[in-house]
Amino acid sequence: MAAKNEHTEVPGGGHKFPPLQIETYASQLLWLALTFVALYLLMSRVALPRIGSIIEDRRQRIASDFAEAERLKAESDAALAAYEKSLAEARGRAQALANEARQREAAAAESARKALDAKLNIQIADAEKVIASRRSSAMTNVQSIAVDAAAAIVQRLIGSTPGSREVEAAVVDVLKR
User: Which string of DSSP letters, residue by residue, matches the chain?
Assistant: First the structure.
């Protein structure tokens, strides 16, 4: 009964734990080696190629997605550049149109100013002619009034009526000064 009381006995009278039995070490090592080789072959021939192909597919998909993203970024940069260029051209055209309109309005205003100046010059010339004719008629009247007044003054002062030609010559001489 001493064999049953060894320290590898299971309490309650069971058998020894199989990995600890010295008699089965060789067969356990053999089965361990066979299982390891079988799992190694299974993993290297079946599982790892599948995992490798999945990883390679994923790497290719990531690379193609990255390339597509780069292409789209380049397209968006090109579109942005084209937009900015067209915006700059539109601003330039708007500025040119504004300048052209400003020049056209300035030319129209200058033309209207010149026409108004010409019209006003004509009116001024006509007014000056009217003023000159009225002045000359007024001067004629003033001269005749001055001659009459001078004759009346001289007559009153000296008591005799002077000659009309002499009074007229004296008045014309005074008016010319």
Answer: -GGGGSTTSPTTT-PPPGGG-GGGHHHHHHHHHHHHHHHHHHIIIIIHHHHHHHHHHHHHHHHHHHHHHHHHHHHHHHHHHHHHHHHHHHHHHHHHHHHHHHHHHHHHHHHHHHHHHHHHHHHHHHHHHHHHHHHHHHHHHHHHHHHHHHHHHHHHHHSSPPPHHHHHHHHHHHHH-
* pTM of the complete model: 0.40
Span 103-153, pLDDT tens digits: 999 999 999 999 999 999 999 999 998 998 887 777 777 777 888 888 888
Whole-angstrom CA distances from 52 to 38, 92, 120, 177 are 20, 59, 99, 127
Alpha-carbon distance of 86 to 117, in angstroms, equals 45
